[in-house]
Structure formats: C-alpha cells, structure tokens
Amino acid sequence: MAVQINPSILSADFSRLAQEAKAVEGADWLHVDVMDNHFVPNLTLGVPIVESLARATDTPLDCHLMIQDADRWAPQYVEAGAGSVTFHAEAAAAPVRLAREIRAMGARASMALKPATPIEPFEDLLPELDMLLIMTVEPGFGGQAFLDIMLPKIRRTRELISKHGLELWLQVDGGVSASTIERCAEAGADVFVAGSAVYGASDPAQAVRALRTQAQAATAQAAWACDH
Ligand SMILES: O=C(CO)[C@H](O)[C@H](O)COP(=O)(O)O
C-alpha cells in the first residue's frame, strides 16, 4: 500500500503561499487548513485563496474544513479546485448527503473526527467516504504535541476498513513528525499531514521524502498491511 505525505500549508509563510506550495512539489497533496474562528479558535483562509493556490501549484489540494455549516460551504471548495474536501463530522448536519454531493462534483469526499469523537457511530457511513481523517491534536493550530491516546482510534478505524473491505484512505493530522509517524503507520494510517515537520525544516521537499521513507518502512512491518 502506498503511503502519502501531505504538507500542511498552515505552517508556511502566508505572505508567500505560491512559493511555499512550490517548495513541496513532489508531495502527494497539499493540505489546506480552512478555519472560520467559530468551529476552531483560529482564522486562516477561504475560497478565493484556495482558487489562487489551485492555479499556483500542480500538487492537488486536500482542503480540511474546520468550519461550521460544512454542508453549505464544502461544495464551494470543490468549485474552487480542491481535489479532496474534508468536512468535520461535528460540523455537518447531513454527512451522507454532503459526501455524495462532493463525490458527484468530482472530488474525493472525506470526513474528520476531533479527538473526543469516536469512530464507532460512523461505521455504517464509511462506504460513503474516500478518506477518514483522525485528528491527533485538537484542531486549530499547528505545532502542537501529538496525542498518543489517538493510536487506539487509528487501530480501530483500520480494523473497520479491513472488516468492510473498503478502499478508504486513513489520514492523521496533528503533531506528525519523524518522532511520531512510525507509530501512526503501525497503527494503520496511510495518509500523513505534516505542518511544522515540513515547513520548519531547512529543506521542506527533503523533509517530505524523509517522512515518506519512514512511513513506508513502518507500514511494511505493520500487521495490518501484511494482511493485504
Ligand atoms: O489541522 C491542523 C491544525 O488544526 C494542521 O494541519 C496540523 O496541526 C498540522 O500542523 P503540525 O504538523 O505542525 O501539527
């Protein structure tokens, strides 16, 4: 199974977004954190900047919406050029309808869970999704410490994906670095968002390659991947 490394633009220099996007070309996706200062206590960027970023880079955009009223806004991010749109389970009134709408518009549909939100109530919804995002920090800010207590949730989610024979990608976001990525991969994650570990490095593109090598090695040893 191929692992994917998605640098988070949240940790980039916002005055140079086009250059910062180009600095990580070679990454699988560019992770774009949209925050509205209501769902999370931080404010970042919206539809016009996503449109500009989509024009500025060949790397597909993985938009993570940390916003209220996701049902209303998520389709606009597909129109803006996002290849994948993640809404939060806690912010969507009709997640199945929304996932179907995103897919019908031609993008990948993804749902995120905050640390305190369990996966079990969403088991039946997983076939409607292309990706499930497990937050490994409280959403809102980059540079936070990885929450080890999320590892059992990653394992349970991977078990559910296997049980149902799904092609669902399992993304982790928050505190993912050289020190934590192997634990995430062993637990079952295959898509890794990294902000400060990439943009805090002297060579962001090299940081992406190094994280991918680590994740690939850990996945090759992982029991969940060996079963496939
Ligand atoms: O969603 C996010 C915060 O809500 C960011 O994507 C995440 O925190 C990435 O930053 P870092 O890798 O530095 O933790």
UniProtKB/TrEMBL annotation:
Belongs to the ribulose-phosphate 3-epimerase family. Catalyzes the reversible epimerization of D-ribulose 5-phosphate to D-xylulose 5-phosphate. A divalent metal cation binds at H31, D33, H64, D173. It comes from the Bacteria. Substrate binds at S8, H64, G140, F141, G142, G143, D173, G174, G175, G195, S196. It is an enzyme of class 5 (isomerase). One of its GO terms (molecular function) is D-ribulose-phosphate 3-epimerase activity. Keywords: Carbohydrate metabolism, Isomerase, Metal-binding. This is Ribulose-phosphate 3-epimerase. Its EC number is 5.1.3.1. HAMAP family: RPE. It catalyses: D-ribulose 5-phosphate = D-xylulose 5-phosphate. Pfam families: Ribul_P_3_epim. Pathway: Carbohydrate degradation. PANTHER family: RIBULOSE-5-PHOSPHATE-3-EPIMERASE (PTHR11749). Binds 1 divalent metal cation per subunit. Coiled coil: none annotated. PROSITE patterns: RIBUL_P_3_EPIMER_1, RIBUL_P_3_EPIMER_2. Its cofactor is Co(2+); Mn(2+); Fe(2+); Zn(2+). The active site is at D33 (proton acceptor), D173 (proton donor).
